[in-house]
Specification:
By secondary structure, the chain is α/β, with parallel strands linked by helices. Helix content is about 50%, strand content about 10%.
């Protein structure tokens, strides 16, 4: 079995504007268009103009999703601040959400201790209030909160995250076009039986898949579909578990923001576990003969520790060769460092040494067919 694992670098290599920064530029342009629809200088103008004439329902939906969205405003503010400071205009939504939610969680614990002893109002730590006022509690000018205020702000945080996620789905499935993309030589030359995608797009299927349905897919974070709405959107846009010990099981105040919850709630795939089981079964069945050699190809993923459980299951499979594509020596160095966190230093050394190594690093080619 040959499994292709793809991250957002796969879409970027095909020239698709799928970075979070690209999406924020789209949102900013929509806001400008709403107040100045005659401004034809925007690269998004023709798309927005078409929405107002032939897809008015979609235009209205975008407007509702974007207007007063606390997360979008917060992300755009950070994005623009980095530009003003001369820094790279890069942003990671999940990382930013995680930082905010952990502060919100800590602040809620601070308040609950005061509510528990009968106080009608509670006070956050000064540093908590200072940070959270930049995103939530806009109408609260004192460090004084009751249960209703906190409940409503938490509810808005969840609703606006869902709205942001649906907005991203529209951008990826309706604005971005894959029609002009060419095949990458590195990928076109591979015989693939399974695709495990961390992306929301189905780029591989549209550009490479001529199998008439024999290739199986697992969109572990969901797949963008313009036919959805905010309630049926199954994109997973959340954070990793930050609690430990008993708190991880008992403290569910912000569980809706966590990826594992969203995967279960939205019914996204974990089909790759069946593929792993099939490979293990074949290894046992042919143990006395010559078990088939399997291949795992990883393209466009940093191997970040947030997906460590998935990569570890694939990479440590017996009779499996893992080929990791990298686009620069710098990215290769980051991938090696991340792999240490995924499988451990000793395991990595064992699997990259000698003629029988099972992990191979390969520099990706920019050549297209």
């Amino acid at each position: 079995m040959n499994i292709l694992v793809i991250g957002n670098g796969f879409d970027i290599a095909h020239g698709l504007p799928t970075k979070y920064g690209n999406f924020l530029e789209f949102v900013k342009a929509f806001k400008r268009f709403k107040y100045s629809p005659d401004n034809t200088s925007s690269q998004y103008y023709k798309y927005f103009q078409a929405l107002t004439t032939s897809k008015q329902t979609l235009y209205a939906e975008l407007n509702e999703l974007i207007t007063d969205n606390i997360w979008l405003k917060y992300f755009i503010d950070i994005y623009e601040e980095r530009k003003a400071d001369g820094k790279e205009r890069w942003i990671d939504f999940e990382s930013e959400i995680s930082s905010v939610i952990q502060i919100f969680d800590a602040a809620l614990k601070t308040l609950n201790e005061q509510f528990r002893i009968g106080k009608s109002y509670g006070h956050m730590e000064t540093w908590q209030a200072k940070i959270l006022h930049a995103i939530f509690f806009k109408n609260i000018h004192e460090n004084k909160f009751d249960k209703t205020i906190v409940f409503n702000e938490k509810k808005q945080a969840i609703n606006d995250l869902n709205n942001l996620t649906r907005c991203l789905e529209i951008y990826l499935s309706d604005y971005i076009s894959i029609d002009t993309c060419s095949q990458l030589q590195d990928i076109a030359n591979l015989e693939i039986h399974r695709v495990l995608s961390f992306n929301y797009t189905d780029t591989y299927k549209q550009i490479y898949d001529k199998s008439a349905g024999s290739i199986k897919y697992d969109f572990i974070h969901g797949k963008a579909d313009i036919a959805n709405d905010v309630n049926s959107c199954n994109l997973v846009l959340g954070i990793d578990e930050y609690l430990s010990g008993e708190a991880k099981d008992k403290d569910n105040e912000f569980i809706q923001f966590k990826k594992f919850f969203q995967r279960i709630y939205k019914g996204t795939g974990c089909l790759y576990t069946d593929w792993v089981s099939l490979i293990n079964d074949n290894n046992k069945r042919f143990a006395k003969a010559s078990p088939p050699i399997n291949n795992v190809y990883i393209y466009g993923h940093s191997l970040d520790v947030t997906d460590a459980d998935i990569f570890r299951r694939l990479i440590i499979l017996d009779n499996t060769i893992t080929t990791i594509f990298y686009h620069s020596k710098k990215s290769m160095g980051s991938q090696i460092a991340n792999l240490v966190k995924v499988i451990g230093e000793d395991e990595l050394i064992k699997r990259t040494d000698g003629s029988n190594r099972s992990i191979i690093f390969k520099q990706s080619s920019s050549e297209k067919l």
